[in-house]
Amino acid sequence: MTQSIINTEIKPFSATAYHNGDFVSVTEQDLLGKWSVVFFYPADFTFVCPTELGDMADHYEKLQSMGVEVYSVSTDTHFTHKAWHDSSDTIGKINYPMIGDPTGVISRNFGVMIEEEGLALRGTFVINPEGQIKVAEVHDLGIGRSASELVRKIQAAQYVATHDGEVCPAAWQPGEETLAPSLDLVGKI
Known about the structure:
- The protein has 189 residues and is α+β, with helices and mostly antiparallel strands.
- 28% of the residues lie in helices and 24% in strands.
- Belongs to the peroxiredoxin family. AhpC/Prx1 subfamily.
C-alpha cells in the first residue's frame, strides 16, 4: 500500500462465497447499509489461517449483535471453502460467508495481493455502512490476528461515527471516557 486506503470507498467486485451450506453471490453492494469486516487470509488447509477463522467464528455472534457482517476472503475457490468447511471441526463452526477470490480481484482491490504467490496477506478491513474503509490492518503471513481486538476497534469506530467531535484514546473500551479534541487539551494528555 503506497497510499492510505482509509476513508476510500470499496471498489466493485463480484464473487461467489460458501455460506451456510450454499454457494451465494456477493458484491460490494452487499457490504453497504451495515458495518462489515473483510478478512483476508492466505489459503485454506493451512496452519495459522484456521486459528484466525475459528477465532472470528467464536466472536461472530458478538459482531452480529453489533450490526456487523464478516466476510472472509482467500484466493481459493468457493468449492475449496466448502471442502475445508466440511473437513475441519474448526472451520465447520463458521457461519459467515467465505468468499472465493481465485482471480485475485478483491485482494488487489484492498492492496493485499502477493503477486508472486497468488495469495493474500492477512488483511483486515472494517467498512462503515456507507462503504468507506475505516480500519485497515495488514499482517505478514506468520502473524495471526485477534478477533477480540477487532471487536474493540469496531466498537471505537462505531462510537466515533455516532459521536461527532469525540475520539477514542488508546485501549478505549465501551463506557470509558473519550476525548473531545480542543485547544484546551493541547499538551495536557
